[in-house]
């Protein structure tokens, strides 16, 4: 028999703090983690093989750039749309739709004989991948109380981190020993497994039962159209700027202005409609929420800028193979896992998250700053420590900002706030690649001109790696070109350090919020 003291102690503990997953909830969480592994693997496997794909399909540096960016754009844009529609049509149903798009895109990429087909496949893959990412977030919000959510969501983070770690290495190995098409063939077993898991284990009941007609009427189709159209146009223009067309050209400015008009129209529509909208404006109700979303944006920006340009540095300046460039990413990706998981466990235990955001941004800023030590002969210990520091900080921010956004949001908005976190982080990825691409290309072009070399080398920098490998180490042209590459990378590292510092300052605006929130959801595990 428990004593009265024990009963009193137990009564002081909230239901959320005592919550334990049942078998059906654990099966859902494990299934989502395995599906997340597939998406993470696909998102990073191209990092070390883009130059080989460009060479095999006779593509330009711009087309190679879009092979990565097209996926990131559609992944970001469709996340809030899929999350919103899933509230009406069902989480499991939209997860299956997302898996279908991901599989269809993978098939197109695997059989592509030219870049238009490859880019189309990558865009369709991105829709599916974005849906899987955001639905993993919102389903955890449906079945796990906020206080315990970080601890259990670390399963997904761990799977995502493993996929991100092995992706670049697998991509390099497959390309060197088989064909680049295997970076897509490898997805098919995972796609099949994903469908099995989604059908038999990710099973959720909706509290409200609606007819198909009611579901169609309740979905904000106009809002979805305005959001997709505006965001797509804006991001395409942003991605073109400085890479495909000059920033002051009509080709760049026109889609940016059209996209901005579309986004403004979307916000006006939300204010006009008010109920059953694609996004509840209440998720942006305070300064802390805006600051947290900015941190999510910069976290995605930094992770993918680093994920793209660090291997590029090893491939070009250091002359490493695709496999070795992927292996060299290990310090960042391996230390990102404990950074994420330790913060997840501690925030669940302490019920506090701001300390991790602030410490994480300090470490991330220092890590990005250490990249400026990279040169032609940087010792392994130096670049490995720099990458490890960056990985720890990024991992801490990754988890703590996610938790913070959900703690800041109102209970009824938690799922869509989690989806918006995923959108902002995913949005930062193509923005980071686009801005850093412009910065790198302009800095490299300027250096090439000052050294008496044609600036066109900077516009085809991925392909020029293969030219460098045919030159003698003492060739003056090779030495000068490497100096230009280094100058371009240095400007990217400075850019990363500056934006990390800006996120640290903005993060200080986040106020204290209680993590002891009741679990309110229209979906339950079955």
From TrEMBL:
Keywords: Membrane, Transmembrane, Transmembrane helix
Database matches in PROSITE patterns: MFS
UniProt entry tagged with the keyword Membrane: yes
The organism's place on the tree of life at top rank: Eukaryota
Annotated TM spans: 27-49, 64-82, 94-115, 127-145, 152-170, 182-202, 222-241, 253-272, 284-309, 329-348, 355-374, 380-405, 426-444, 492-510
Membrane topology: Multi-pass membrane protein
Gene Ontology, cellular component aspect: plasma membrane
Coiled-coil region(s): none
Pfam families: MFS_1
MF terms in GO: transmembrane transporter activity
Compartments reported by the entry: Membrane
Domain Major facilitator superfamily (MFS) profile: 28-514
InterPro entries documented for this protein: MFS, MFS_dom, MFS_trans_sf
Protein name as annotated: MFS general substrate transporter
């Amino acid at each position: 028999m428990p004593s009265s003291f024990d009963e009193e102690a137990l009564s002081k503990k909230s239901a959320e703090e005592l919550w334990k997953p049942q078998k059906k909830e654990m099966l859902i969480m494990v299934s989502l983690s395995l599906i997340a592994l597939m998406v993470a693997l696909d998102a990073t496997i191209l990092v070390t093989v883009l130059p080989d794909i460009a060479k095999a399909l006779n593509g330009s540096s711009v087309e190679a750039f879009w092979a990565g960016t097209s996926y990131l754009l559609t992944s970001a844009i469709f996340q809030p749309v899929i999350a919103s529609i899933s509230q009406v049509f069902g989480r499991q149903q939209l997860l299956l739709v997302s898996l279908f798009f991901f599989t269809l895109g993978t098939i197109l990429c695997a059989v592509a004989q030219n870049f238009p087909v490859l880019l189309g496949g990558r865009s369709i893959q991105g829709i599916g991948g974005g849906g899987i990412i955001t639905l993993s977030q919102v389903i955890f919000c449906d079945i796990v109380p906020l206080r315990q959510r970080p601890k259990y969501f670390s399963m997904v983070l761990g799977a995502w981190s493993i996929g991100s770690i092995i992706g670049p290495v697998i991509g390099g190995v497959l390309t060197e020993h088989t064909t680049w098409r295997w970076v897509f063939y490898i997805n098919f077993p995972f796609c099949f497994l994903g469908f099995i898991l989604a059908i038999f284990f990710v099973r959720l009941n909706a509290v409200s039962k609606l007819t198909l007609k009611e579901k169609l009427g309740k979905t904000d189709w106009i809002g979805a159209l305005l959001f997709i159209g505006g965001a797509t146009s804006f991001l395409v223009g942003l991605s073109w700027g400085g890479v495909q067309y000059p920033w002051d050209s009509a080709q760049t400015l026109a889609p940016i202005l059209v996209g901005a008009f579309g986004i403004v129209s979307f916000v006006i529509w939300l204010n006009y409609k008010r109920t059953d909208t694609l996004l509840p404006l209440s998720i942006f109700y305070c300064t802390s929420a805006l600051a947290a979303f900015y941190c999510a944006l910069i976290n995605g920006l930094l992770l993918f800028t680093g994920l793209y340009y660090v291997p590029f540095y090893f491939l070009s300046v250091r002359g490493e193979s695709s496999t070795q460039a992927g292996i060299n990413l290990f310090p960042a990706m391996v230390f990102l896992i404990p950074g994420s998981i330790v913060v997840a466990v501690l925030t669940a235990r302490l019920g506090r998250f701001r300390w991790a955001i602030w410490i994480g941004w300090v470490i991330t800023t220092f890590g990005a700053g250490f990249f400026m030590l990279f040169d032609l002969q940087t010792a392994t210990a130096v670049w490995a420590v720099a990458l490890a520091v960056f990985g720890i900080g990024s991992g801490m921010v990754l988890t703590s900002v996610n938790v913070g956004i959900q703690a800041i949001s109102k209970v009824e908005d938690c799922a869509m706030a989690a989806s918006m976190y995923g959108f902002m982080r995913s949005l930062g990825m193509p923005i980071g690649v686009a801005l850093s691409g412009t910065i790198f290309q302009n800095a490299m072009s300027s250096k090439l001109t000052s050294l008496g070399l044609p600036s066109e080398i900077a516009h085809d920098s991925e392909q020029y790696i293969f030219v460098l490998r045919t030159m003698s180490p003492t060739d003056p042209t090779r030495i000068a070109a490497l100096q230009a590459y280094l100058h371009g990378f240095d400007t990217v590292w400075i850019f990363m350090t500056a934006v990390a510092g800006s996120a640290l300052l903005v993060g200080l605006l986040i106020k204290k919020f209680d993590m002891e929130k009741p679990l309110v959801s229209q979906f339950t595990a079955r």
